[in-house]
Specification:
7 helices, alpha/beta, FAD/NAD(P)-binding domain, five-stranded parallel β-sheet, binds flavin-adenine dinucleotide
């Protein structure tokens, strides 16, 4: 397990800005995440200091260079889960490694992918779950399906095996993106793949059946949604962070309700712009530095 003072989840403007502050202050800083959506050939016309405009790709590359200059370690890894341990530190599992840190900055943008089930909201808390570590316990020996096409879904399915042997995974009509390593683990654990897409749920008070797009209906007790990559909301569920809608709640110092966890940028849901993400990243970095210093005293 690698250790760092501050782990920043997300390599967008918010995460890189936070990293510049924390690394420059001498904090051991690790940024986990790959290039954000804006890092393409899009002209950014409204960011301070670039009157001739700059592409998103160039801006993010400059941000990465800037953070690295002060010693931040940048790793293109997808975070699958974050848990707080008994010492109050945070253990992070990625698709490639494990990292332990004193403080976490969430800078994951808004990326929650919806599974496209027409009546899903009727069953939230009644068989639909977004968090295996929160709800897996309630499905002991029950039949569950994980919806998702990537390593995040694969990891959720593997975690569910701690509670029940009856786990399958459905890519929900998406192109499968599971690494060979995780595919081998799914096979070893006997987790089957259900073809097609769940389109409707049935059941009187709780989910009893899932209807697929080929009209097939199968019986099921629980469905865990894990589409795309883990989002700040998934981390919020496991860590007990307060949310408002699809966003993380953070105060004006970017503190969440969990000491040591800060959030900034689009995942906080204020004005979804680069300048705001960069500003909030700086504040989150500053707050995390104070937290780590206080903790070490
Ligand atoms: C095409 C496009 C054009 C835009 N143009 C402009 C513009 O001209 N001006 C402007 O001000 N704003 C623009 N925006 C909006 C701007 O890009 C966002 O407001 C800004 O990028 C938010 O920064 P962020 O760091 O909060 O989130 P993001 O930039 O979304 O970065 C989030 C990062 O978190 C990572 N991440 C998420 N989940 C995980 C996980 N589980 N593990 C690891 N990493 C994870 C993502 O991969 C990404 O790197 C544009 C956005 C897009 C998509």
């Amino acid at each position: 397990m690698d250790t760092t003072d501050i782990a920043i989840i997300g390599q967008g403007p918010a995460g890189l800005s936070a990293a510049i502050y924390t690394a420059r202050a001498g904090m051991k800083t690790m940024v986990l995440g790959c290039a954000p959506k804006v890092a393409g050939d899009y002209d950014i016309d409204n960011y301070f200091g670039f009157p001739e405009s700059i592409t998103g790709k160039e801006l993010i590359e400059l941000g990465c260079r800037h953070a690295k200059k002060f010693g931040a370690v940048l790793r293109c890894e997808k975070v699958l889960g974050i848990h707080q341990n008994s010492e109050g530190d945070f253990d992070i599992k990625t698709d490639k490694s494990r990292v332990s840190c004193k403080s976490v900055i969430l800078a994951t943008g808004v990326s929650r992918v919806r599974p496209g089930i027409e009546n899903i909201s009727e069953y939230e808390g009644k068989g639909i779950s977004y968090c295996v570590s929160c709800d897996g316990f309630f499905y002991k020996n029950k039949k569950v399906i994980v919806l998702g096409e990537g390593v995040f879904a694969a990891n959720q399915a593997l975690e569910l095996k701690n509670y029940t042997p009856h786990v399958s995974i459905c890519y929900q009509g998406k192109k499968e993106k599971i690494s060979e390593e995780y595919k081998a683990l799914l096979q070893k654990e006997d987790i089957s793949v259900l073809p097609g897409k769940v389109v409707r749920l049935k059941g009187k008070n709780y989910i009893e059946q899932a209807e697929f797009d080929n009209n097939e209906i199968i019986s099921v007790d629980g469905i865990f949604v894990a589409m795309g990559e883990a989002s700040s909301l998934d981390f919020a569920y496991t860590l007990g962070i307060t949310t408002k809608g699809v966003f993380i709640e953070a105060d004006d110092k970017q503190h969440t309700n969990i000491p040591g966890v800060f959030a900034c940028g689009d995942c906080v849901g204020r004005f979804l712009q680069i300048s705001v993400a960069v500003g909030e990243g700086a504040i989150a970095g500053h707050s995390a530095i104070s937290f780590v210093k206080d903790k070490s005293r």
